[in-house]
Amino acid sequence: MSVRKASHAGSWYSDSAKELGRQLDGWLEAANFSHGPARAIIAPHAGYRYCGSCAGFAYKQIDPSNVKRVFILGPSHHVRLSGCALSTVAKYRTPFYDLTLDTQVYKELHSTGCFEWMNLETDEDEHSIEMHLPYVAKVFENHRDITIVPILVGSLSPERETHYGRLLSRYLADPNNCFIISSDFCHWGQRFRYTHYDKSCGEIYQSIQRLDQQGMSIIEMLDTTGFTEYLKKYGNTICGRHPIGVLLNMVDHIRETSNGLKASLKFVDYAQSSQCRSFNDSSVSYASAALLLE
């Protein structure tokens, strides 16, 4: 049986189950349950010392008792991908226990002809899905029979975001499923080749926050076209913009096809890795959100 190793354990997060468990418990306890039970969350995927606390706010909104399947949509950082890809392994390792991939759903997805397979090297190099696995394992520690459905999301055109959104919407509509949308927000600084600065906001970090919050409020309005236009206008370096685009399209499709299902999305936390004050500085922003479908 093939297993994807926890390749970023020991560097991006602790490889000691005891130490990691203590950290995650602490972040979950510090967060408040304000917008749940979530059918989907948006949460960051950086090293835990930067974003573990922020991610805790998203994971706090999940009620594990009804969930049987966890979909994890993460952007591809290393390979060019114009569509979406699935993993070839049976299990994903975490410092706590192994998470089992859902072969049935994978079969259904692959049969659409819209998904390719990623090789093990791509799978283990990518951190956007892995950084959610310890949190998933933690939140579901008393419900270990869940399965996971990792999906690596490429640089999708708006049309392809719509296509994948339609395709995945029936899974989001099922209350036994939970979706994790993996994204950081603004990557600011010369090393990211992105230095948008609106001086009317004050310091650089305040301008970054304003820019992020504009994007966040468009996402909260579930305004799919508005989000695409915002990205075109400002070029904000939101690395999970395509997974977020797919989520917004899933919600659009559910609203078109279901009778009066109400969707509400709220951001529950926002943080920056550091406060930029000069053009020599750099930072990454993190934002956590929860989506309710009722």
UniProtKB/TrEMBL annotation:
<protein>
    <submittedName>
        <fullName>Protein MEMO1</fullName>
    </submittedName>
</protein>
<comment type="similarity">
    <text>Belongs to the MEMO1 family.</text>
</comment>
<dbReference type="Pfam" id="PF01875">
    <property type="entry name" value="Memo"/>
</dbReference>
<dbReference type="InterPro" id="IPR002737">
    <property type="entry name" value="MEMO1_fam"/>
</dbReference>
